[in-house]
Design goal:
CATH architecture of the largest domain: Beta Barrel
Helix content: 10-25%
Strand content: 35-45%
Number of helices: 13
Largest sheet: 16 strands, antiparallel
Structural class: alpha+beta
CATH superfamily of the largest domain: membrane protein fhac: a member of the omp85/tpsb transporter family
Distance between the termini: 117 Å
Number of strands: 27
CATH class of the largest domain: Mainly Beta
Number of domains: 4
């Protein structure tokens, strides 16, 4: 009898101890079947409730429950009756969470109130809770008998220690506050490896977007006080190695490479460096390799070059409204002396103005030009160019005159670092312009037909020697020069001509073009040009002119008029030949563009030539054309346009063809 009383006392004490801390007790305890509590036993009310919990306490479930044999097993709550009826969950309780919302934990559960009680499902639910990352492995599910039948499922969790703050080390090119903007959302939450990994990915993605593709989070450590310490390796360059340059000198290559040892590697800068190297036209290909130096933990950047022949002799033929059918011969060296300098000599001979015009004397167009360019003058953002030229042709500014020009200029250009698309230039040069009578008899006839004294002819033939100063600003965001699809080109130039034995004058002019992509391959171009005289008596050879392939198409050169100022606009739609890319992969054919356009413009300040040839001074035209890109020459433009306005002394009502090379303006 005494032994039974002792056993009763031991079980009662153990039961009280276990029930007082249900969140952390772990046992597989059941009363012997022969033992029964006496309901008439007088104990305190709270002790009675604890004993009832002990009666109802079933074997707890863990995330890795080894007692699960069948996914469809249900739990029999009857110990002696042998009942096998299914049991349902009547209530779900969450214990142990302080920060994470109970609703969040319940959302992870498949075993919900009213669902069939299934040990394997509950074990899987505990795994899902654990995989949220907020909790330790001490997760349990304790099934208890519920009043009125069913199971009262008690889920017991233990949160990870909360994060009280972050520190960041190793970052230089990205501000700490930018990194903290990613991390701060996790402060106050339990430590969660999933959230930390997500933050690491966001930090590395932020670096990558900025071009720092080597940046990595290399260490994440938590202190006992809840501070998480993050270390970043941004990817510092150990050395830049150049190989494959046999003719080009090392310092020429390296001055085109802005990345330097000791700086953080940036793929965007490297891409620009490669484009600069390719732009020298000294190389067929440029590649870069990245390798970590095991001794320093930094990176070696190897730039591999494939040099090409840079000295070329060119022969060409073409057609242009101003030069007629022409042939050209030239020599160019794009890596002069291995210093990346450019040297060119070109000669061109043409038949003269195309589409015979009674106002332009029929004679050959002869030109020669020598050019030199230092692409890195004192700095990678500065260039220095020199040009000398001779030209002899039938003037298309001054009717029936032979125009001879020779001169030279030096141009200094600087790209602004603060505004990468903006550059400024200034040219200093000298030019001699001679205008000789080409057909005096015909000129006298024209003057007589208009009742103008022939003594005015001398003013038309004014030339002289001039010193020139021309500052300019250019803004260029075009994606490419050939077949541009999007971007803006804007340029404004002041030209001051100081005469020696001739009148001095100055003028200002500018252009604005916008390229708008349409669909996948087409482009809509809108452009505006304008200019005017600032001071002095501007001679006719220097007057602004409209008409021809580079201004208002549908007219010959200068046929709309010449004057002291002008304004014009253009709208043009360009598209590839339909289905050409499906028919062939030939680059030449796929670069051909069809065009439809409208031109409009007006001249300000009437000139003597306008009166002699009854030029309208304004025009609106519309037409169609072809843009054909010829390697080595650039785009050739063939256009046909019809005027919608008065054509003056020339009957262009049936339209007119023009031929040009290069962009319209």
């Amino acid at each position: 009898m005494r032994s039974i009383k002792k056993l009763l006392l031991i079980y009662t004490v153990l039961g009280i101890l276990f029930i007082q801390q249900p969140s952390y007790a772990a046992f597989n305890f059941k009363f012997p079947k022969f033992f029964k509590f006496k309901k008439e036993k007088k104990i305190q009310e709270n002790q009675q409730e604890q004993k009832e919990d002990i009666e109802n306490f079933e074997e707890e479930i863990t995330p890795q429950d080894e007692n699960i044999n069948n996914a469809n097993d249900t739990h029999d709550m009857s110990e002696n009756s042998g009942e096998t009826d299914a049991v349902y969950i009547s209530q779900v309780e969450i214990f142990g969470n302080n920060i994470i919302e109970t609703s969040f934990i319940k959302d992870q559960l498949s075993a919900k109130e009213g669902y069939l009680y299934d040990r394997k499902t509950i074990s899987a639910d505990l795994n899902k809770i654990y995989k949220t990352g907020y909790f330790t492995q001490n997760i349990r599910a304790v099934p208890l008998r519920a009043e009125g039948g069913g199971i009262r499922l008690r889920i017991i969790v233990e949160e990870n220690p909360p994060i009280k703050g972050f520190t960041v080390e190793g970052n230089n090119v990205v501000a700490t506050k930018d990194i903290m903007n990613i991390l701060s959302q996790y402060e106050g939450q339990p430590q969660n490896i999933l959230n930390i990994n997500s933050a690491i990915e966001q930090i590395q993605e932020m670096y990558s977007i900025k071009g720092y593709i080597l940046a990595r989070v290399t260490s994440v450590q938590d202190d006992p006080d809840g501070i998480v310490n993050i270390t970043v390796d941004e990817g510092v360059i150990n050395d830049v190695i150049v190989e494959g340059n046999y003719k080009t000198r090392d310092f020429i290559v390296k001055r085109n490479i802005l990345l330097e040892p000791g700086t953080v590697y940036n793929e965007n800068i490297m891409r620009d460096d490669i484009l600069r190297l390719m732009g020298t036209q000294a190389f067929k290909d440029v590649k870069r390799d990245i390798e970590m130096d095991p001794n320093t933990g930094k990176y070696n950047i190897t730039v591999s070059l494939d040099e090409q022949r840079t000295g070329k002799i060119s022969l060409g033929v073409g057609v242009d409204s101003t030069s007629g059918f022409f042939g050209s011969v030239g020599f160019s060296e794009n890596n002069f002396r291995g210093l990346g300098q450019k040297l060119s000599i070109n000669f061109m001979a043409g038949t003269g103005i195309l589409m015979n015009d009674s106002s332009i004397i029929d004679r050959p167009n002869l030109q020669a030009e020598l050019g030199f360019l230092e692409p890195h003058f004192k700095s990678e953002n500065q260039t220095l160019g020199f040009r000398a030229f001779i030209r002899n042709f039938g003037s298309y500014q001054v009717p029936l005159a032979i125009e001879k020009r020779y001169g030279a200029d030096i141009t200094f250009t600087r790209r602004f670092k603060a505004f990468k698309n903006l550059s400024g230039s200034i040219s200093f040069g000298g030019e001699s312009v001679d205008l000789d009578e080409g057909d005096e008899w015909k000129a006298r006839q024209v003057f007589a037909s208009r009742g103008i004294d022939f003594s005015e002819r001398a003013k038309q033939l004014d030339g002289g020697v001039y010193a020139k100063i021309s500052p300019a600003l250019t803004y260029d965001t075009r994606d490419t020069i050939v077949n541009t699809r999007q971007g803006v080109l804007a340029r404004i130039c002041l030209e001051e001509s100081i005469g020696f034995g001739a009148d001095s004058f100055g003028k200002l002019y500018g252009v604005l073009k916008k390229f708008i992509p349409v669909g996948k391959k087409s482009t809509f171009v809108v452009a505006a040009r304008g200019g005017g005289k600032l001071h002095g008596d501007m001679p006719e050879f220097a007057a602004f002119a409209l008409g021809g392939p580079y201004s208002i198409r549908g007219f010959n050169i200068s046929e709309v008029g010449t004057g002291n100022g002008f304004m014009m606009g253009t709208a043009e739609f360009r598209t590839p030949i339909p289905f050409m890319d499906r028919l062939t992969t030939n680059t030449f054919l796929n670069n051909v563009r069809l065009a439809a356009f409208v031109d409009a413009g007006t001249i300000f300040g009437d000139s003597l030539t306008n009166k002699l040839y009854d030029r309208p001074g304004y025009a609106i035209t519309a037409g169609v054309g072809l843009r054909v890109f010829i390697p080595g020459l650039g785009p050739i433009n063939l256009d046909y346009a019809i005027p919608f306005t008065n054509t003056g002394g020339k009957d262009r009502s049936n339209g007119f063809f023009t031929f040009g090379m290069g962009e319209m303006y």
